[in-house]
């Protein structure tokens, strides 16, 4: 009496589990960032012993908005939030160009990916 419904439920569960496992293998993800802002400090070139050099600098992005209860867009206080980003350039040609030409105050556009790994040089500076 219960055997058939239990087997049907079990079969559905197994099929769902195998489809889920297969979809996890084929699942795609995206790690891409685009930033447009001003450089906060001149780039520095760092290199850990036995590793490739990296150019590092900070980049500020600003978000601005008006606050106020008026429906007229031009009335209200302007607020601003600045977010600082630490940019690391690893690609050899681009790393050297960034180190040579990017300067504090430069307005630049950066594309890349986010990686929260830590980098330390030979003096254990991060």
From TrEMBL:
GO terms for molecular function: single-stranded DNA binding. Pfam families: SSB. Keywords: DNA replication, DNA-binding, Mitochondrion, Mitochondrion nucleoid, Transit peptide. The keyword Signal does not apply. The keyword Transit peptide applies. Homotetramer. Interacts with MPG/AAG, through inhibition of its glycosylase activity it potentially prevents formation of DNA breaks in ssDNA, ensuring that base removal primarily occurs in dsDNA. Interacts with POLDIP2. Interacts with PRIMPOL. This is Single-stranded DNA-binding protein, mitochondrial. It comes from Aotus nancymaae (Ma's night monkey).
């Amino acid at each position: 009496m219960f055997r058939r419904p239990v087997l049907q439920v079990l079969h559905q569960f197994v099929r769902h589990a195998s489809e889920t496992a297969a979809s996890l293998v084929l699942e795609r993800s995206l790690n891409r960032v685009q930033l447009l802002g001003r450089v906060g400090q001149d780039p520095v070139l760092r290199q850990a012993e036995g590793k490739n050099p990296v150019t590092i600098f900070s980049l500020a992005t600003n978000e601005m908005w008006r606050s106020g209860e008026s429906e007229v867009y031009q009335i209200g206080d302007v607020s601003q939030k600045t977010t600082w980003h630490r940019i690391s350039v690893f690609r050899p040609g681009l790393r050297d160009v960034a180190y040579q030409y990017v300067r504090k105050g430069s307005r630049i556009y950066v594309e890349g990916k986010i990686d929260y790994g830590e980098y330390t040089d030979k003096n254990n500076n991060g």
